[in-house]
Batch of 4 targets.
Target 1
Amino acid sequence: MKTPTWATVTGILMIVFGGCSVMNDFKSITLPSILAMQRPMMEKKMKEARARDMEADSIAKAKASTDSLSRAEDDEDEDDEETFEQKQKKVDEALKLPEFSKIWIIRFGYVGVVSAILYAIGGIFLLVKRPFSIKLAYAVLAISIVTSAVQAAVLTSSQSSGIIALSTGLSQIVGILIDIILIAVIFTSDKDAYQFPDNQTS
């Protein structure tokens, strides 16, 4: 019997999602080292921007013609300096990755690679049709949901996780919703094509 349309579509989606997840998980594994390399560059850019601002302020002061105007500009300079410090703090917070989050992002990256490969394999067996294809699809989708849920819970559990860790954890919710939809599609679809007589596998 021909592979049902729903199984073809679901299998292809699982293969695509699995492949994309593998790439994202490899990025997660290398994320801490990438951030470590980017931090000096960001700090350098911030210093260069600050130097340009100070140069512009010096020119403005040179053009000032009255003491009152100079005092007003001094007050503005203090406000600008405070604003600059706030901007620098925001940049630091954006690049912040506590040791706890760093360790778990890497761990979940390795776990995610295995889960994503199984995910793609589940999609492949939906296409080639084997007696265990449906059970395998259920199993890999369930594994994906569990690993995504644990990752979301761990990375968003700490108040000091940082923006990057929080966004990484919360992004898993989308994957969980997709997995639930795929399970619902398999559960509600006609699976007669996967019912084989004894000693027959295709």
Target 2
Amino acid sequence: MSRALLTEFKLFVWDGTPHADFEHNLGVQGIRLLLRDGGVQVHHETVAMPEHFPWVLPENAEALDMDDRRRLVEEYLTASEPLKQFYPTGFSISWYY
């Protein structure tokens, strides 16, 4: 398992350091991911705080229910070129807190 952060433009992958420390040290914010064999785990904050992810979720995302937000994030991740390169044969998506 590796930790990853998907920003609007890049996929950062590393081992060890917690996401919050990595974001603070680099001054970046993104979708927190855990990369596993064949699958990606997405941190729930992506749908809980949609205002922090304007490149993923629409402006009115607060009005959407959590299932609709998850669906939009999953569509975004599935279409992500950096993730497609990391998982050329595809990947599953699950969520974590």
Target 3
Amino acid sequence: MDQALPTGGVLWRVLGAWADPRGSMRTELDRAPSEGRLLFYIMFAGLFRFVGAAMALAYGPMALMIPDDQFRGRIAAAFVAIFFFLTILSYAVAATGGALARLMGGTGSWYDSRAALFWAALVAAPAVLGAKLLSLVLVGLPALIVGSVEMLGGVAFAWTTAYCFAEAHGFASVWKVFAVIAGLAIAVVGTIYRLGQIV
């Protein structure tokens, strides 16, 4: 069975996943990637986010107002936040998402949930970076437009996650999974906004 699996490199498989996200998830599960490989996936995805954060610091609207010493500090903070805290958070999100999927009738394991989330993050990473860079190019336009463009990266991540979780947990409808993810995201953003108003 291994001989029938695609033999391209990870970047080639990431690009190909956009043509068939469910099929790419099934291929990854058939590969049975090790925990080290899954960690590589989420950290590689983090690399794209780090590049976007660094570009925002260097060329964003606040770039000229950040002294060199603060710039280096912010770059270091972004590095720690993305490669350490975001990685840990990804494991927690995978566990929570897996538990929720099981409650909704999903058949995947916690391993399947990690594989789904981490592969989805990697597949979406180029789109997340592209949206970030495009939002920097559009700086100067109304904030709603710039923010909407940057938000496209989050939509891409939710879209790939929906496909990957649907395949990993045996859900027939990707759109129902996407609706749940979107609903949870809106609830989280709304809660943070309300807390910000209280504080």
Target 4
Amino acid sequence: MRALSAADYYARQFYRPPNWRYTRAQAILNREVPRVRVADEDPLVLDTVAYLKAERRLRDSNYTELDRGRRLMARWPELFGAYELQTRGGISLPRTSLEAHILARVDSVKVAQRLATEPAVIDLYRKLFYDVSDRLESVEYIAGFVIGPVFQVGLESLNVELLAKYFAYFGGEVMLDTVLFGMTRVNNIKTDGEVLGYLEQTVNRALKQQTATMAILMQPGRFDIRTLIEGYVAIVQLERSIQDGQEEQTWVSGLADILRQMFPIPLTLEQRQQHRTLINSPSGSLPLEPRLQDRLALASGELSVAEVDSRLSTFTLPLPGAGFQNAGDKPR
């Protein structure tokens, strides 16, 4: 039986790195992997090897950046454009926007217009650095392997790239614009008097968006989002001062009070380290919560508060290797 080509192999591999072509080209160039027959190799990988070899030769010959770029662009215009988008500026907004738009299923023509380049450059970038287009229907692959874990991360791990890609994949292009740029429409401010109104509207919208984002991605009990929610409460109260919205005001204000009682805001580095230790390695026992079915039974009246409290108070951990039983049951 004839062996699969390199492209066929990666196409069938679940944990396929999005940049497998570029990684393979680098490995071939550095002689880190054995080469396969030309007929069994991906054509773009071969082109990339030639491009990288030429770029290295020009660099070793002390060509200036301008001279290297002129020669490389003349021979590989699309590859040069894709390589530039990937390698320049580290984790840059253009690259983050490009990859997030791919996750949002935006076609190459529209993405090229936004990045002031050619659709062929975007198509080549997709294949060489972000080969995920045929896996967009697999939530397990995209959310679990490409985007990485986003839910319930700390502020240190929550960055623009994670947010943009998460909301692009699950929310689409419009949601991506909101996360990336906040205000997606250019406002033509004509007078000085309109400046304050514009700034107030921008702050209003940004605070609401940030509050919603934090509430979606973080556990309110583990990460203090009180400041954002308090700001949101103030805005809601202002907007509804002439409307009948008292019930909503009471609910949001009550939520802010609950969060205030749970944890203080860790401001200094020492306080943040103590907070992290308290959450991840508590000295005392962890608080228990009723199971989902118990909460539903409690809400419907099938269980009393006393019964739920009794179950939680008699809960014991199972022995290693044994499964969890109902609260109060002895480990098997």
